[in-house]
Description:
The protein has 124 residues and is mostly helical.
Amino acid sequence: MTKSIFEQLGGIYHEENGYLIPDLRLPAEEKQPIVIWGQRHLDYLKQYRRVTYTNLLTSGKLNTYLADIDRQAQERSHRLIEGMKQAQGITEQLKKENTPKWTRRMYNIRACAREIVNEEIIYV
């Protein structure tokens, strides 16, 4: 009996109820923590970039890719927040003197940074 292309490429089968079922497994992948930015990008890939998502998943590179996106987004967000704080003169002195004003301005800066990171990295 000739081997199928699947068998020629090293694939194996197992029998279930008289049928030969191919043993398909995803490649092993190193687990890395994925937090908020990576999760957002994962949702975006699943919804709008299905081919990219499937290719990354089946090649065993999805987790590494998402961890890298997460790291890039976190670093970009931090740099943006620090730059905006300096540009707007938001200091620890303001925090001590007028906490509500400092809080409002920081929330605004974080929201702006989040929008920029979403546009530049997450939803691309």
